[in-house]
Each structure stands twice: as C-alpha cells, then as structure tokens.
Amino acid sequence: MSAPILDLIKESDLSKVAIFSGAVVDPDGLASALAMQAIVESLGGSGVCFYNGTFNRPQNKTMRQSLSLQVKNSSEYTPEDFTTVISVDGPSSILPRIDGKPITPDFIIDHHEQSEQASKGNDVRPIGSASAIMWEYVKAAGIAFDTEEGSRLATALAIGIITDTQVGGVDSSSDLDYEALADCLKHKDNKLYQEILNYPEPAYYNDLHNIGWSSKIKGEAAMVAGLGRLPAGRSGAISDLTERFHRTEGTTLAVVFALVEDAAARSYEIHASLRHSRGSCNSDEFMKEVFGCGGGKKNAGGAQVKLPDLFKDIPPKMADKLFDVVKEVIAHKVLKAAGDGARDNVPGSGTAP
Predict the structure, then answer these.
(1) Residues 187, 243: one domain?
(2) What gap in Å lies between CA 130 and CA 140, rounded to an integer?
(3) Can you give the pLDDT at residue 170?
(4) Which CA distances in Å does 313 have to 71, 213, 262, 323, 326?
(5) Phi then psi for 226, rounded to 5 degrees?
(6) How far, in Å, CA of 259 to CA of 232, rounded?
(7) Taking 60 as the threshold, does the pLDDT of residue 348 lie above it?
C-alpha cells in the first residue's frame, strides 16, 4: 500500500485534529474525511470533520443521515482548539481564513492539483477519486473492514469512488480507483449502500427541470438552462440537473444556473454548474473564462458569482427581470466559449423556444 505521508501524520500531535474536505459537500469528500477520522482515532487521536458549503443535495443529505456522519460547518472551526489540520479532497485555499489569510494545513491528501503546499506533507495524485487514495491509507493504517464500523467506512468509500469516477466513466479513473472500489464493495453494508446510491429525489426537481427545459438555449452541441430564482436550500438541484441536461441526445456540454437567494443577507448570487464530454475542454479554464471565477476538474465545473450590493434587498419581480438579463449574458458567453456556431433561441435572435 502506498501511503507516503502516513508516518509523518503518526509523528504529529493528533490529540485534536481538524479534518477539512472539499470546496463543497460531496460524497468523495465526506468519505475521505470519514476515512481520515478513522485513521486518526486508530492512532489514539481525536478528529473533527468540517465541511464547506451546505448539505443541499439529496444524496449528500442521505449519506449524512444513513452513515450518521458527525460533521461541522467550517464556520465553527476555532484554530486555537486544534493541534493539527488535514485537508482531503479539496484545495487548501478554501480553508477558513485567519487575519484575512487561509490557514495552511499540515497535510494535504487529494486528487486535484493544488496551488499551495501543506506545511508538513502532501500526497496529491491525478486519479479519479480521493476516496481511492484514502483507501490505501486506511489499509496501511491496519483498519479492518470486517467490523461494523469498518463496513460503514467501506460503504462510504465505495460511494465516494463511484460518484467521482462516474463508475469509471471519467478519463482520470485509475487502476487504484478500480482496486479500491472492488475491495470496498466486498465489505460494504449493502442496506446502507442501497439507501445512499438510490437516494430519493425531491419532487421539485421535476418542476425545475421543466423550467430549465422550456427556456433552454442551445447551440450545436452546447446547452444553457436557467432555473430562475432559487432559495439557498434548493441550490443543490443545479448540479444534479446539469447532469440530466448533459445526458440529452446531441449535447456534449451543458451549463445550468440559477439566481440563488441568501434570505438572511437579502442578496443574490449566481450559481452555475458545468458538465461536458469534450476532450478539448478544460473545465477550470472554461468556468473562469465565462464567469471570471470558479473552477473544475476533468468533466465538471462550478462557479458562484456574488452580485454587487446594488442588487441587495430588491423585490422578487425585479429579481426576475435581473435573472432574464443574467441569462442573456451567460448564454452568450457560454456558447461563445464552447465554440458553438448555431445558436438556437438565443435571446433577441427572434427564434422560437
């Protein structure tokens, strides 16, 4: 088993470890954090798992409930209470900020490129999932899967690998992903596995799909769909519906977005998601070209654009008009970046929906 920084982790003060996962909540990050927590506890330490964003996607909610995951929002992190910081499945740049600067983790284990290095040890590999890397660390730490807790961990890691590799469908899927998945599937809790894999989809997904489909903007093989205004609690539908639209016949690139309302701040943000099956498309560069921020991995990307204070505390009807303008801009920029020549139903083109 390859666990190059495990010895360095063992030598650290593990009396109170903060474990951060991902820029957003997803199964790969949750499973990776759970695995690191199990390793820390097997070494006699104590670990607390932190997440960024919200549990607004139904699969993440189901995973949290089925596996009884004890995780805290990163806003609850207090640096003075922890002796070691470990980041898994996510850029260290999204860690909480102290005096305006993100903290530097002691260790990073990830399958994404990192712009910053950890202070003590890094294990970054360009493979399909972070869960597969964490499987090696779990094995190297001597944690068995033939116990109730071990079976629960194997279940989480299997879901993490399946989700991020799209069951081996992404180009970055590796031999390690396949080996780890096979072992985790052997030891999974089948009841929990089925619960998480077949998570219930909220009924409002169908309503949002209809909204996006009826007003979609399509180029030759790219599609843009807007879902209108959404409360923050339903923003998880954006990425899930992007996958639906991407599976539409003749579509190789799909962007779905919405105007997401932060009720407490009386403000709006543009949340957008990308899915594509174009070998020539760099997801990270595409999102930055279109939205000026965000990022991505092999076949997926996301961006959140905070609107200026000028648009705070505006009535719903005015927000709807704002959404129409935002939709025109995003459609223009997405289709331009995608290089699609034919542009059906671009606002102002005079074509029918």
Answers:
(1) no
(2) 16
(3) 78
(4) 32, 29, 10, 15, 17
(5) -110, 140
(6) 9
(7) no
Number of helices followed by number of strands (H, E) in the chain: 11, 14
Give me the pLDDT at residue 100, please: 75
Question: Per-residue pLDDT for 265 more than 80?
Answer: no
Per-residue burial over 62-95, b = 16 or more CB atoms within 10 Å of its CB, e = otherwise: bbbebbebebeebeebeeeebebbbbbbbbbebb
The dihedral sign for the CA sequence 197, 178, 138, 116: negative
On the question of pLDDT at 282 being above 50, the answer is yes
Residue 21 has pLDDT above 70, yes or no: yes
Domain assignment of residue 42, given as a range: 6-197
If asked whether residues 193 and 241 sit together in one domain, one would say: no
Dihedral sign (CA 119, 121, 127, 129): negative
CATH number, domain at 130? 3.90.1640.10
> Average pLDDT of the chain?
91
Give the E-state strand segments of the chain in sequence order.
17-21, 47-51, 71-73, 84-88, 97-98, 101-102, 107-110, 121-124, 217-218, 222-231, 253-262, 267-276, 295-296, 300-306
Q: Is the pLDDT of residue 69 over 80?
A: yes
| Token duo for residue 297 | 């991995």
Domain boundary residue, one of 197, 213, 237:
197
Identify which of 236, 222, 180, 172 has the alpha carbon closest to the alpha carbon of residue 26: 236
Picking from 129, 164, 197, the residue at the C-terminal end of a domain is 197
